[in-house]
Design brief:
Shape of chain A: elongated
Strand content of chain B: 25-35%
Number of domains of chain A: 1
Oligomer: heterodimer
Distance between the termini of chain A: 46 Å
CATH class of chain B: Alpha Beta
Bound molecules: adenosine-5'-triphosphate, magnesium ion
Strand order of the largest sheet of chain B: 6-7-8-3-9-10
Helix content of chain A: over 70%
Largest sheet of chain A: none
Number of domains of chain B: 1
CATH architecture of chain B: 3-Layer(aba) Sandwich
Strand content of chain A: under 5%
Number of helices of chain B: 11
Structural class of chain A: mainly alpha
Chain lengths: 205, 256
Amino acid sequence: MNGRLASEIVSLSLEHLTLVAITLGIAMAAAIPGAVLLARRAAARRWVLGFANIAQTIPSLALFGFLLPLPWIGGIGKRTAVIALCLYALLPILRNTLTGILGVDAGVRESAVAMGMTRRQILWQVELPLAVPSIVAGLRIATVTTIGTATIAAFIGAGGLGVFIVRGIAMMDKPQILAGAVPAAAMALLADEALEWIERKLSPA
Amino acid sequence: MSAHAIVEIRHLSCVLGGRTVLRDISLRVEEGETVVLLGRSGSGKTTLLKAVNGLTTPSAGEVWFEGRPAAQWDPIQLRRRMGYVIQDAGLFPHWTVAANVGLVPRLENWPPDRVAARVESLLEAVGLAPGEFRERYPRQLSGGQKQRVGIARALAADPPLLLLDEPFAALDPITRFELQRQFLHLRRTVRKTALFVTHDVREALMMASRVALLRDGALDLILTPEEFLAASTAEAKAFLASLEENWRQDERPPRI
Ligand SMILES: Nc1ncnc2c1ncn2[C@@H]1O[C@H](COP(=O)(O)OP(=O)(O)OP(=O)(O)O)[C@@H](O)[C@H]1O
Ligand SMILES: [Mg+2]
């Protein structure tokens, strides 16, 4: 392997990671508070989850295609890619956070009320901590999905490891494709392992 | 001077899921007094405690606490002035014993070292060696140990009223007797006011200033333990009969 390829793998991997990190940051910032709001609103919850489920089924390449011509959010580049990736990352985090909060034992919640905790204290001190393992499980699904889907985002100019794949397909150059696919797969596996470890650490034994 | 009522329940009824669980209950608990709610399983004892605590909204009637109707209280303040020992403990699974016991003092913004000292002395008081139990999680405790943590938690902020829902039910007879005696001592020394739920007549007669007998969600009678021993309602007699039956069994163990 020549030096130029190696350094390109490193720099595109970093770009890939950045893309993934930004996506997950935004998705968490939207999905976790969203889940907190939806936890107390059953009707709205059905609508939002239904919509998110549909969004999830749109093939990623098609979604990038839809977003491109849109004003403000469209166009070639990272921003469009991040928006599309966020749409995919949102659902698992939202759903798992909801599952975690709604799964808190009714007796535990009642006990919190009986002790004179306010709703905010119950949320921060009881519901969210007890939901953490489930939230991390959702984050894990979102992370693995995003690392994979982000390779496709190179088609709309997002950069990252997908650049190798796009180039490799265009030039029918198998090693180029592998130079993108292998590090992406390794990244996904590593992230999966790391988050699984955290999830285990945080779950009550 | 007439005694000061800490809790006054006025014509309270509760309908839950279409069933009348409590009907027209009136009851005063005066300062320093322990009123024991005695009744069969399903007679509405827990529901009555929940109504006092504001966990259950009455469908009729009202609860007064410290001279004011509960509706005029901030529910958070009201609950923090009532130490509640929940049936089956209701501990927070993600917190250690120390964190569980120190909850209300923390909510009341006590300084951490004062909370820690309070937790320490409460664990001692309920017979759990602090060094051994402080850092354990509820899942690492036996049923009776959980119950004692629940009792310590209810006492933590030294509330004027205690609500105790079968607090000694999961204990072995020796520990139970020990805690019953400690509770009586506590009542004499700091004049704790308490609503104490049990289905055990013997415990009721031991702990009570007055026994309130619940039958099918209605108050059958409310009497001092001495009066209760001579009570004539069918439900009281049924409970007293179970007491005699116990004594007879104590004298003459059943043959196998
Ligand atoms: N949320 C509810 N909805 C409908 N019925 C209820 C509800 N909560 C309690 N009940 C019913 O009300 C009755 C009284 O219940 P409660 O828990 O107060 O009984 P208890 O006297 O505490 O019994 P135990 O000694 O078994 O704890 C029971 O028949 C119970 O099934
Ligand atoms: Mg009960």
